[in-house]
Structure formats: C-alpha cells, structure tokens
Amino acid sequence: MYPDDVRIEIIRGDTYTLTITVNSVNLTGATVRMSGRTRESATTTVFDLSSTGISPAISIAAGANSTITVTIPVATTAAFEAPLNGRWDIQYVLGSVTQTIVRGSFDIYEDTTR
Question: In the chain, which ranges are E strands?
C-alpha cells in the first residue's frame, strides 16, 4: 500500500504552507525531508527541504500524533520556474527507519497579482 497521493499547488512568489498529522508515530528525534522533482526518476530537484540546518523549512511537533509543518518562503517560491509540475514526497528518518509519509503531484503557477 502506498501513502496517500496528494496534489499541492504552489503560487510563485507566495509563501506556501502544508501541515500534515502523522497518527500514532512519535517523531521525537526524527529528521523529516520533502523533495519535489519534475518526475520521480529525475536526478535534480525542484525543491529539497529538511527539518535540519540553519533555517529549516520543516518543523516537527512531536508527540503520540506528530504534526509536520512545511513552510516554503517567498524568496524560495519566487525563484521557481512556472508553470511547472512534478512529483513530491515527505519522508521521516528515525533511527534505522526511513518511511514515506505522503506523496503526490505538485503544480507551480505564476502569480497573477503583482
């Protein structure tokens, strides 16, 4: 069984936020990653985000039902090529376990109001 297939839409030049609840998984100490590619087999990423580093784009509220919040700032989305579409997923790494939580397609659109 595959994780849910979720379509996301990102407007170039807007802040993008996605919140996901992971039921029955405590993500204390986990690293969460989100990548988007024009196709799953592509070698380059359109976006590559993490819960680690100086300015992490992913925050984790760990607990019995953990919450993951992805925030892509304006400075990042403004640099996206548009229109563009592809595939994305979010994985967590906790100890020796790597698990894909959710995946889907994405569309990046040009902004209309400037």
Answer: 8-11, 16-22, 31-37, 47-50, 58-61, 66-72, 84-94, 97-109
